[in-house]
Write a structure and sequence with these properties.
12 strands, Nucleoside Triphosphate Pyrophosphohydrolase, alpha+beta
Length: about 230
């Protein structure tokens, strides 16, 4: 079956997790994150339904960098808007990342290399904390999210071949389940639910950065990890 074409922003919101607590500000500091990744505290990733349209064949290993920027007032999450002409995930919001290449020493090296290539983020500003559970995407990748602190001052510049825009979202916004929408799409043989986390754009034009799919699931797992 071919993948359905749909606009995720037009699909119905069937739930918002108002009952779940937000991660407290005390847990959203650089020191608290370092401590949490050193611990062996048990936690459970977000349950996932099997994807109905996964590309056939063995999933290809990949990594993304989850960059938590240490701004003076609070941590932010650096994200990219993918170029509209790309074959996979065109026009979607994502973390810098891509497939593992033969010359990569490990999964961390993949994430750092991809961040350098996509947004010109120099690894000298990156402090790797650890990683979240890998996940399989519908496009046939086995992706490991590598979580890191990014220390200013640094500069970023989008690779126009892959990235249309670079922006930041407060970590506190994304770690608040009241901002986590559950949406649903239906296809011939069933339905599938996914998270979305719309973040308002600045300026008079309005609109949102519509964070959804694999990126939203990774952020939801970061929420589960930090709130455990």
């Amino acid at each position: 079956m071919a993948r359905p074409l749909f606009d995720p922003e037009l699909l119905p919101v069937i739930g918002i997790d108002h009952a779940l607590p937000a991660v407290s500000d005390e847990r959203l500091t650089a020191a608290a994150l370092r401590s949490r990744f050193r611990e062996q505290r048990a936690w459970e990733p977000e349950p996932r339904e099997p994807a109905p349209f996964v590309t056939k064949g063995e999933p290809r290993a990949a990594a993304v960098l989850v960059p938590l920027v240490t701004r003076h007032d609070a941590l932010t999450v650096l994200l990219t808007l993918r170029a509209a002409h790309l074959t996979d995930h065109a026009g979607q919001i994502s973390f810098p990342g891509g497939r593992v290449e033969p010359g990569d020493r490990d999964i961390v090296a993949t994430a750092l290399r991809e961040a350098q290539e996509e947004v010109s983020l120099d690894a000298s500003h990156v402090e790797v904390l650890g990683h979240l559970p890998e996940m399989i995407t519908v496009t046939g990748y086995r992706v490991t999210p590598v979580v890191a602190l990014v220390h200013p001052p640094f500069t970023v510049s989008a690779d126009d071949a892959e990235v249309a825009e670079i922006f930041e979202v407060p970590l506190s916004f994304l770690m608040n389940p009241a901002k986590h929408e559950t949406r649903e799409f239906r296809y011939e043989t069933g339905n599938r639910r996914f998270f979305s986390m719309p973040y308002p754009r600045a300026g008079e034009d309005g609109g949102v950065y519509f964070i959804w799919g694999a990126t939203a699931t990774m952020l939801r797992n970061l929420y589960r990890f930090l709130s455990a």
